[in-house]
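step 3/5: co-fold with zinc ion
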Amino acid sequence: MSNSVNAFQNQTWKEAREALSRGVVVILPVGSTEAHGPHLPLATDVIISEEMSLRAAQKLNGRGVETLALPAIAYSVTDFSADFPGTISIRRETAAALIHDVCASLYQQGARLIAIANSHLEPEHVASINKAIQTVKQETGRAVAFPDKRRRRWAEKLTEEFRRGDCHAGSYETSLVMAARPELVREDVRQSLDRVPISIAEKIKEGFGSFSQAGGTEAYFGDPRAASREEGEAMFEALSVMIVTAVLEALAL
Ligand SMILES: [Zn+2]
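step 4/5: write tokens
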């Protein structure tokens, strides 16, 4: 993993006190523990969010905006993949409360800005993040930056497969894990997978309630075989720039 010196959890409490008193920006990686095809680990979304957070922190520090990446939230609302072993879904209220409590604690301690780096795109999960942000705003008057990569502004910087919506454990996510943690990709399995040209984003809109119902019987959509480390590097660049841009805009810099 890149730049663990920028990881909040690697500071001592005295270093954290100093950073917070200077008004450090913190990035909260949000992922899930969920089935990601037969070739990627359950932690796929956590790995992606952590890596994009660390890369964004490095970029921001390079621009003179002191930034640390927080420990990731690894449990989310993951109802679509709940029928696959290993997936751990939590209630929407629990998810919202967890994110809220982490943000409230950090604002109490002096954080300059909190930004959320999210990689799990299930609508109910995104709703839990927005609910948490809303509650933080009501209670503290403070905003949390949350660039939603499904929005056209950010999605147009990502791959065609991502925009089509067949983006669960397909080429897009597989490439990202190949770039961040290549040893965790089951390469022989990946090479054997046929493309599943189904837009899970569309299926969700049509009312399908699970991956298997929507045709993703192995818990992936898209084309894992087309993935590459190069694509992963390019996507981490786009994702970290997305976080950097959202932070700079929130700080009006
Ligand atoms: Zn994912």
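step 5/5: annotate
The chain has ten helices and four strands.
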